[in-house]
Write a structure and sequence with these properties.
Elements: H1 9-29, E1 36-39, E2 60-63, H2 80-89, H3 102-105
Antiparallel strand pairs: 1-2
Length: 106
């Protein structure tokens, strides 16, 4: 909200750098059974005119200590696929009417 919606490319870039610089510490603190998911609720290009959302698709990046290769998760049918994946990762039966991509990550 502070940079994308306000059309502040420098602030947007600085925030991304701050997050990037924090990732090694996040990974260092993760346990063997933890799953890291980076995502967003919408896209918002800080160089586009106006203050509305500018993209339909969101980033979806996942990592855990057991990963041995990159996997293309494709374009998901629904945002709820993330919830279904978290549920499966935690051993829960609920899938929220969505499709888990947990098996792709193992």
């Amino acid at each position: 909200m502070l940079w994308g919606h306000r059309r502040d490319p420098k602030g947007f870039a600085d925030a991304l750098i701050e997050i990037d610089n924090t990732i090694p510490e996040i990974i260092r603190r993760m346990g063997d059974e933890d799953l890291l998911i980076f995502t967003a609720d919408h896209g918002c290009d800080p160089t586009f005119k106006g203050t509305d959302h500018t993209r339909e698709y969101i980033p979806l990046l996942c990592w855990h200590r057991g990963m041995t290769k990159a996997v293309n998760l494709g374009v998901r049918e629904t945002y709820a696929d993330i919830a279904a994946t978290c549920a499966q990762w935690l051993g829960l039966d609920e899938r929220f009417g969505a499709t888990s991509f947990c098996d792709l990550l193992r």
